[in-house]
C-alpha cells in the first residue's frame, strides 16, 4: 500500500473509532472490500448494508479496491478490532485458519451447489467456529464467485506444457502455491492489492480469479488469454471482527447475522446470470477464452495426487477431507 493510502486508511479507521465510541446508539461501521466495483464482493456488501440499515439505526460503508489494506491485512486489523468488517477471498483466510483450506483443496468444489452445500451446512458451521477461534473473526456471509480461471498476457494455455515459463501470480496461500508446483510452475506469491500493477508492469504474466473478479478489476486491460480451469471455486466470506461483534447489543448482533444470511442468499442467486454476461463482455473486449485439453484430465490428476496429501494435517486430518467428500456424495480418498 502507498504512503497516501496508509494515511487515508489510518484516518478512516480513527474516525470510525471516535464515532463508535461517541455514539452509543448509532454506530458507523467500515467494511473493507478487496475487489473493485462490479464484482460479487461489492454485491454482497451492498446487500448486507441494505438489510442491516433497514433493521437498525446504524450505518455502514464499503471501501472498495483494497483501500483499507490487502485482504490478508484486513484479517489482522479485524482481529484486533481496528476494522469492523471485511469481504475477501477464502484463500486469504486460510493462512490464518488452516482448516478452511478444505474448501480450497484443488477440485474439491466442483459446482456452485457444492460450494453452497459445504459452506451452509454442518461443515460450514464448524469452519466458522474454527475461524473465530484461530483468527478472531466471525464469518457471517458468503459470496459465491465462480471458478478461478487462469488469465495471462502471453499465449493461449491448453496443456501443462503450455504453462512452462509463464510467471503466474498466486495469493500467499500454500495450497495454491503447491497446486501450481504440481503443474510444473513455480508461482509468484503476491498480495492481491499489488496484482494489477504487477500485471501491468509485466512483473507477472498471469494470475487466476473468477470471471467476475477479472471484470471488476479491469484485468482485460492487461491480460489477453483466459483458460477455463476449474481447480478452485471462489468463495468470498464477509467477516466481522469478533471483538466488534461482542461489543454490540443483542439486537445489533441479531441484525448483523440476519443481514449476512440475506446477503448470502442474494449472492448465490445472482452468480449464474452475472457470470454469463461478463464472459460475453470480456470476449467483446478482445479476450480469448480456451478450455484445457482433454477435459482438464492431466491438471486434475497432478493436482489432486500431489497436493491433497500434503494438506490433510492442516485441514484437520484425512477424515475431515473424507467428511467433505461424503457430504458432496463423492468417493472417499
Ligand atoms: C486473491 O487472488 O488474492 C483474491 O482471490 C482476490 C479477490 O479477493 O478477489
Architecture overview:
The chain is an alpha/beta fold and 333 residues long. It has two domains: 3-97 and 109-145 and 235-274, Bacterial extracellular solute-binding protein, family 7 (D-Maltodextrin-Binding Protein, domain 2, 3-Layer(aba) Sandwich); 149-232 and 278-327, D-Maltodextrin-Binding Protein, domain 2. It is built from 13 helices and eleven strands. The strands form two sheets. A six-stranded mixed sheet has the order 7-6-8-5-9-11. It has a five-stranded mixed sheet with strand order 2-1-3-10-4, with helices on both faces. Helix 2 (40-55) links the parallel strand 1 and strand 2 (59-63). Helix 4 (112-120) crosses helix 5 (122-135). It is globular and about 60 Å long. It starts with a helix and ends in a 6-residue tail after the last helix. Residues 18-24 have low confidence and may be disordered. The structure holds D-malate. D-malate binds at residues 34-35, 71, 88-89, 91-92, 171, 192, 209, 213, 236.
Most strands sheet: 6 strands, mixed
Ligand types: D-malate
CATH superfamily of the largest domain: Bacterial extracellular solute-binding protein, family 7
Q: Stretches where pLDDT falls below 50 for ≥5 residues?
A: 18-24
Provide tags for this entry.
333 residues; alpha/beta; D-Maltodextrin-Binding Protein, domain 2; 2 domains; 5-stranded mixed beta sheet; globular; binds D-malate
